[in-house]
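Q: I have 289 residues here and want to know how they pack in 3D. Can you give me a structure?
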Amino acid sequence: MCAAQSGVSSSSCTAAGSGDANYNCVWDSATSLCKISVVMNDFTAGSVYETRQTQLTQSKLGEARFLNTRMLEANAAAISKSDLSLSTGTAGTKTKLENAASSVYTTVEAAKVATQAKVDALYAKTERNAIKIQQAKEESLRLQTTELEAKLEMQRSLAEHQTVVQNRFQSKRFDVYKLNALKQDKLKQEFARSRFTLNQLLTSNGPTVDPSQFTESTCTTDQFYNVECTETVTDKSAYYTGTGYVSDQTTPEYTGSGTLASPTVSVVGGADVDGEYNGAGASGVNRGR
């Protein structure tokens, strides 16, 4: 408390020490310092230490208040200077902004007029382009219809031509199948005849004999035991009948028009005929058994 009054006045130094009975504040006029004087009348243990700590704290607080006051004054001066500078700069800036705004407004208005003219021209061009696009779409639709009709006509023509070619091919193919079938059926007949002939040759005990020229011997004995034989020719072919396959060599006409499947050929009339191998047949010789 006393040190805080140093450099102030004698009265303030004396008043600072009147509040505590343990010390007094004494003013030194030579140095202008306020010194503390301890009162020893009623001594209390620790009171001096407490007083010392209190005085130190008060001294630090005084110094802090002094520094804070000086700093506040410096800040107030800086703020005043800044406010003056800001007010001066604001006035100049406001004038510049107003001039710039007026210039920008004039420029924007001129640009707006020019832009509106360009926009009107673009709208007109857009309408012209829309009309051209619509006309092009209609022309495209007409061309698509024409191309579709040409495509369908071509497809019909190709399908008709393909049908004609396919039918012609199938007809010729059927003729080949038919010829092969007739040949195979004819071979079947000849193979059957050959097998019959071979079987007759294999089962005979001697040379083959014509059954229609079969020779029989008739013998008679008289009272003197003389034997007289006569030979007669008889037809025995009825006893040696043979069944043979005969090919009729007929086929039905082609009826598979418009199909891609292989044609089917069936020989009509081929059948086993009784007595086919009884006569001489194609060789001119009746071989019989």
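Q: Anything worth noting?
A: Residues 3-90 form one domain. The chain is about 55% helix and 10% strand.
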